[in-house]
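Throughout our pipeline, every protein is held as a single compact record rather than as scattered files. Nothing more is needed to write down the fold, since each code stands for a local backbone conformation. The record that follows is passed on verbatim for readers who wish to inspect the format.
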Amino acid sequence: MRWTKYFIPTLKEVPSEAEAISHRLMIRAGLIRKLVSGAYTYLPLGLKVLKKVQNIIREEMNKAGAIELFMPSMQPVELWHESGRFKDLGEDLITYRDRHNRVIVFGPTHEEVITDLVRNHVNSYKQMPLTLYQIQTKFRDEVRPRFGIIRSREFIMKDAYSFDRDWKGLDESYQKMYVAYGAIFKRCGLKTVAVEADSGVMGGDVSHEFMVLSESGEDLLAHCPNCGYAASIAIAECKDAAQGSGLRAQVKEKPIEEVDTPEVTTIEKVGHLLKVKPLDMVKTLIYVADEKPVAVLIRGDHDANEAKIKKFLKCAKLEMASEDVIKKTTGGPIGFSGPVGLKEVRVIADNSIKDMADFVTGANKKDKHYINTNINRDFKVSEWADVRMITEKDMCSKCNKNIKIEHAIEMGHVFKLGFKYSKAMKAEFLDEDGKLKPIVMGCYGIGVNRIMATVVELHNDKKGIIWPVAIAPFQVLVIPINYKQEDIKKTAENIYNELNQIGIETLLDDRDESAGIKFNDAELIGIPFSIVIGDKGLKKGIVEIKIRDTGKIIEVKKEQLKDNILSLLAT
């Protein structure tokens, strides 16, 4: 391909709306352009990268025994009501009414559609195991699309679905996808960490996320450098050992006392007023779980983990209580809730407060708090559980060493769905014992365009992108310093034609531009190898190979160029 015949609109200036490094570089390098918030056009260079990522995914999925199909983006809402997920996704779902007044969902995912397909065509154990996948555009009405194509409203996903007769079969299908994911990300130039994860609205009891450590990542993962334990902070385990400032067994409890805290509602402000540290306070959070109020007690310096709370309560829906519900449940206004005096409400306490003594809580009265509150004497706890966010002060639950918490970008997510969809949607098969049984399902997603952006996020320098060879838009860029000069032009054309003939994807910069502009654009778009043809070298029969990743320049004779390029591409 010739630069003058292609479409590569590079930019010198950094776009004002671009926050992440990948977003800035992908716009500047002419890979993408924003149409509206959360929706992007893939320009020719970007599309070439995207297709290479898709090809790698297809190769590894096919190798794992998965079969490709292609499902509609438009889905009838009745399927979502049948699975019970319509309310779960809420405002994230993008819907419209067609001319027949039917509600159509623009698919954010395809569990319902694939389950409907399989229940109509798979009816015997002999037809399983079966894994189907697609690469398809998805739609989610993100509240705040960010970081270009890392978090967008329209995005490309590879989603696969496995169907097995039993849990043993699911384990085997899950493991095949797990291994395939590792191979996909490695081939794309990404080092991932597989972490235990929360299944969220997808459902199921077991799931893993494949994460890439990155400062710009919106996700957080906890991992132990000592034993290798890793988990999303949504489910990362906190050790039961209390870390409070006082142990009840060693302290003579003081009398509980109500104190004035006028218009002071936050942990920080209450602590400042009463001269008490947050770790000597307990906050009472009122939730509504499947329409029933629940009080959750958390130490003042910790944050509640709603994923853990939801899993512990085994509820379909969990949300913070409204002001009216708080008033009705506690008798007091929002900001002054406490466990003392609560009646007919389930009280769940985090394990970290077990050994606390003489702590501060809300008094369920306006402008009032209790000091010297104690468990059992002043209130009862219904159940104890790990319901808080892990912190870097915590120790690993497996080996008791220090935990690290780092930002990461989610690349893929695999789920053991079990019977969530097959039971709800009656996807059944006849087993060899002659009985109807629900199909055991798994699902497996990869953010295709997110791979592309994350590679840019991690593989770059101050000059631009540094593409791994496997997904680079071109493998080689030929840069004639003065294309108008006949000897240079002829040599460039010969090299360009020869490399293309042997299957090396080559871009020829045939523009009438200065060397500086050509070099800057070459480093910006990040093609792995540049062949520089200049007057001085050419007189000696020499051209230069510049390696984008290292900046190293190799001088080679024209006759040896092809072999040198093939050798570099093979490494």
Observations:
- The domain at 18-73+111-236+405-456 is CATH 3.30.930.10 (BirA Bifunctional Protein; domain 2).
- The longest strand covers residues 404-418.
- The first helix runs from residue 21 to 28.
- The radius of gyration is 29 Å.
